[in-house]
């Protein structure tokens, strides 16, 4: 896979083979693999005075927002095949970043990857560590080139 | 002259200040946290970086203080960016 910023302010991703596409499709699968709901997790420990309103009004909105991020990614990949090129524009950058973050949060929750070098991991955890590292690299590109208004 | 009793209803003390606190986590990127603070709280980059470093080094930072409605809005927006944000009463 090749990923690079373009002059017109997008990230171009060239899928060289089926593995590249599988890695990108794993973003959504990894995000869905978390133990429990992310919005609920973020509200853990909320002041009891607020908890009822939070559950009624805020959580559904956060859940919808997080789901929409994953739908954006799944939609972008739905018609893509190995050998194709596709682009992430500024309008979708935050959705992609958020979806990647969901995937990394889920992998961290499942495998406790932080503070551990990938070579030290084994089996499924090693594979998860490699994906988490790739997701982080892609997030860095999105943040630097699309979200922060940088031009490289 | 009739006497008047004054009753304070603590539930109506809606204007007491709340802190919006962000906690450290092992996933969110430092540059991203700075970017979120600038976007959501309208902090300048140096102040946002200072708050981000407080989160990173001390485990938490009070990033905003004020009325309940605004605190709820900011907390919701920070959580929408997947930061560990909470509202707390000062001193808790």
Tell me what you see in this structure.
The complex is a heterodimer of chains A (152) and B (92). Chain A is mainly alpha-helical. Chain A has one domain. Chain A has 5 helices and 3 strands. Chain A has helices at residues 18-32, 38-42, 48-78, 90-111, 123-147; strands at 2-5, 11-14, 85-88. Chain A has a 3-stranded antiparallel beta sheet with strand order 1-2-3. In chain A, helix 1 (18-32) packs across helix 4 and helix 3 (48-78) packs across helix 4. Chain A is globular. The two termini of chain A are 20 Å apart. Chain B is an alpha+beta fold and 92 residues long. Chain B has one domain (16-88): Ribosomal Protein L30, Chain: A (2-Layer Sandwich), CATH 3.30.1390.10. In chain B, 42% of the residues lie in helices and 20% in strands. Chain B has a 3-stranded antiparallel beta sheet with strand order 2-1-3. Chain B starts with 17 loop residues before the first strand and ends with a strand. The chains are: A mainly alpha (152), B alpha+beta (92). Chains A and B meet through helix 2, helix 3, helix 4 and helix 5 of A and helix 1, helix 3 and strand 3 of B.
Attribute tags:
heterodimer, A: 152 residues, mainly alpha, 3-stranded antiparallel beta sheet, B: 92 residues, alpha+beta, Ribosomal Protein L30, Chain: A, 3 helices, 3 strands
Distance between the termini of chain B: 43 Å
Share of β-strand residues of chain A: 5-15%
> Can you summarize the main beta sheet of chain B?
3 strands, antiparallel
Q: For the residues shown, what is the average pLDDT of chain B? A: 89
**Count of helix runs of chain A:** 5
What's the architecture of chain B, going by CATH?
Answer: 2-Layer Sandwich
Succession of helices and strands of chain B = EHHEHE
Oligomer category: heterodimer
Could you say how many structural domains of chain A there are in total?
Answer: 1
How does the overall form of chain A come out from the CA principal axes? globular
CATH topology of chain B: Ribosomal Protein L30, Chain: A
- Mass-distribution shape of chain B: elongated
Number of H- or I-type helical stretches of chain B: 3
**Total beta-strand segments of chain B:** 3
